[in-house]
Amino acid sequence: MIKAPEQLCKKLGLTFNQPEWFVLALTHRSMGAKNNERLEFLGDSILGFVIAEALFEKFPEASEGVLSRLRASLVNQESLAELARLHKLGDYLILGSGELKSGGYRRASILSDAVEAIMGAIIKDQGTDSCKTWVLDLFADRIAELRLDNWQKDPKTRLQEHMQARQLDVPCYTLISQSGLPHEQTFKVECSVALFEKKFIGAGVSRKKAEQQSAELMLDQIARESK
């Protein structure tokens, strides 16, 4: 059973003058023409700007290239999906029967689109300033954790150094699957470490990229556990 949107609204610290905007933000296109795609488009636009401005202020010496890569590390499908899972947003999504049966409430693309749609809904209901405030609050911990000297190292290197500093075994990467045509393959790699029983699976167009993503997910978990 889909949980009441009002519960999620309260959890997210939001109050809507017109609650129908929030309900629309949770409505997937599988429900028909009245869905969250247009709000997602609006939210995506402000999200990129707000994060870019925050990074611009936080790292005054960083070059345009570094700022772009920092923004990409925060504003991406998996990052948004992780935030959505943190707030159990999938329990509130309004999906068609097909998406419900196929587990759409767990799919990263649907979760990330809903987060951006919520941003669009805030703009329509309360304006860009309110949306900016909420976005900065949502990403506050992740922005605070960014360090130029640390971030410039790739995730695999950072994870290995983290483990070695604690005199633990280095991470283990296992290829789970390799699919697709030779010129457009997708690799899935599982990352495991001695700190956790939980393993993380990364995906990418090469085994290296999949390993990097799985290491990044593991680092996110370590950061959450250390709070």
Please tell me about this protein's structure.
- It is globular and about 55 Å long.
- The chain folds into two domains: 140 residues, Orthogonal Bundle (Ribonuclease iii, N-terminal Endonuclease Domain, Chain A), CATH 1.10.1520; 73 residues, Double Stranded RNA Binding Domain (2-Layer Sandwich).
- It has a three-stranded antiparallel sheet with strand order 1-2-3.
- A hairpin with a 7-residue loop joins strand 2 and strand 3.
- 58% of the residues lie in helices and 9% in strands.
- The mean pLDDT is 89.
- It is mainly alpha-helical and 227 residues long.
- The chain is built from twelve helices and three strands.
Give a concise summary.
This protein has 227 residues and is mainly alpha-helical. The protein has helices spanning 5-11, 20-25, 37-58, 64-74, 77-86, 97-101, 108-126, 128-138, 140-145, 148-151, 155-165, 207-225, and strands at residues 172-179, 186-192, 200-204. It has 2 domains: 5-144, Ribonuclease III domain (Ribonuclease iii, N-terminal Endonuclease Domain, Chain A, Orthogonal Bundle), CATH 1.10.1520.10; 153-225, Double Stranded RNA Binding Domain (2-Layer Sandwich), CATH 3.30.160.20.
